[in-house]
């Protein structure tokens, strides 16, 4: 993929950028000329994504962070503020899927981790990057959700509850900043996508029967160029 220059000088932070949809989004943004800050826990995997971006002529920086650490997001934001003034795109792709169990058998530790990564870290990201987003001329926050957040499903309650809270936080933030800045929020349900998380949830599924992460990334990059209203919510169904 050759580098484009549709977004020269723009900055993006992508969480969960070490693999799957997050990595695909990071590569797609970089191909559009955006400098992408890649964040996740796995340093080696982040380096692999960065190598692929640079090999394609793009620009990126890795910033390893553990979203479960109390001050992880704050340290990440402080480091980024030290180098850049404004943030144009915040893509919240990192998520944790606890074991699928009946409500009565939810593991408290895993449930806590899901709420920490999927909910508390999301609030921390918005809080710590809000000022940088407001300094952008047209900032966009993209959050990747799941249909189980608004359509409860047996055995998915722990993850679904965390995603319902995730959606609520992003939707509330969209309303709060709508009249006081140039920030738009989009909540995207990737739908069935070929990822490690999907494989964990559906171990017997043939991966070739679901769309690749690049299909989701392409849709999100296209959306960034559209004049959508803040609070936008859509599901990516096409392959």
Report the major sheet.
7 strands, parallel
Sequence stretches where pLDDT stays below 50 over 5 or more residues: 1-5
User: What is the strand content?
Assistant: 5-15%
Using the coordinates above, name the CATH class.
Alpha Beta
Biggest sheet strand line-up = 3-2-1-4-5-6-7
> Based on DSSP secondary structure assignment, what is the total number of beta strands?
7
The CATH topology is given as Rossmann fold
CATH superfamily: NAD(P)-binding Rossmann-like Domain
Number of domains: 1
Question: Class by helix and strand content?
Answer: alpha/beta
Count of DSSP helices? 7
Helix and strand string, N-terminal first?
EHEHEHEHEHEHHE
How is this fold's topology laid out?
Elements: E1 11-15, H1 20-31, E2 35-39, H2 43-55, E3 59-62, H3 72-81, E4 89-92, H4 108-134, E5 139-144, H5 157-177, E6 183-189, H6 196-201, H7 213-224, E7 232-235
Parallel strand pairs: 1-2, 1-4, 2-3, 4-5, 5-6, 6-7
